[in-house]
Specification:
140 residues; mainly alpha; 7 helices; 56% helix
Length: 140
């Protein structure tokens, strides 16, 4: 998904058109359309990310989780790799069905996807819990 498409999706989810979203972000009303053929400034991307409550990395397509940075994505993948490493060996309980036979590839992928979701949720909760109040978006 392109930057323009991501912004369009975010704006639509808020009931805004592209021009409204640009103005509410503190930008000129047609700037997003100009980004189709030119590179945006970092400061402008930050304004858009702040308006929608997402990361700049999400806007740029570097992560598919709106609140995650590129580093967060690497952390999730590292944790997932560490957790699943060796799950296919004979002594692993996680990849064994009743009777001691190894689970098939489809079930292994489902287990991996479930673990990834848990890791992502845990990371989001930790970010909310451990971000100092002065840096939180809402200043809860």
């Amino acid at each position: 998904m392109t930057l323009f498409e991501r912004i369009q999706t975010l704006a639509k989810s808020r009931g805004e058109n592209m021009q409204e979203a640009a103005i509410k972000s503190g930008l000129s009303k047609n700037l997003f359309y100009r980004w189709k053929s030119s590179e945006p400034k970092g400061a402008d991307l930050k304004k858009v990310a702040d308006h929608f409550g997402v990361s700049v990395d999400y806007l740029l397509g570097r992560t598919n989780t709106p609140q995650f940075t590129r580093k967060d994505e690497r952390d999730v993948q590292k944790i997932l790799t560490d957790m699943t490493e060796g799950l296919g060996n004979d002594s692993s309980l996680a990849y064994m069905k009743n009777g001691g036979e190894e689970i098939d590839e489809e079930d292994a992928e489902l287990l991996r996807a479930s673990l990834e979701n848990v890791i992502r949720q845990s990371k989001l909760i930790a970010k909310q819990k451990f971000t100092p109040k002065k840096y939180r978006k809402n200043n809860d």
